[in-house]
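We now fix the convention by which a protein and its fold are recorded. These numbers are not coordinates but entries in a learned vocabulary of local backbone shapes. A record is reproduced here so that you can trace the correspondence yourselves:
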Amino acid sequence: MTSGVPTEPAVLDAGELSSRPELEARFAESAHRILADLVGGGAALGWTEPPSRDEVAELLGHVVHAARAGDAALRAAYLDGRLVGLGYWLRYARPTHRPHADLERIAVDAAAHGRGIGRSLTAALVADAREAGIEVLTLDARDDNAHALRLYRSLGFTEYGRLPGFVAVGEHRYDKVFCMLDFRRQG
């Protein structure tokens, strides 16, 4: 904060991130901290146990490589030089599905929730998808992640399916909710 006014997050793409060595050098470690903390707290990010540093580094390496090839977009949100969120989409690999991508993950540091960072990341990734010629951007979320589902709906995503009780976390069962943003309908 400066003069009592909250600072806006800087939302960088993969190219901007790699052009800033001071941020790039700490990116994987900072991303690991965010993801491991969120998953450890029960967040629905695709892991039931916090991912290892190596797993996160490998995942991010894959996403950055795909982004350089035009098959992904990565966004990182920084507040005052500290990573507070990240997200990415990946293009579907099958030739018949190449015009489509899946918004794989949006993660915001718990200490930065409520600051509009998830919205900024998601909006930037939606713009990246549109610019990349993606026709349909899909995602899935656990039904108990009501805040994220509201955010996605507010950005134009619509639900197109649901698998009741599909996600098992210990004794708990959650619906898997499928959403899409169809750019073909938006002209």
In short: DSSP finds five helices and seven strands in the chain. The two ends are 40 Å apart (CA to CA). The beta strands are 10-13, 72-79, 82-91, 100-108, 136-142, 158-169, 172-182. Helices lie at 14-18, 21-40, 53-68, 117-131, 146-154.
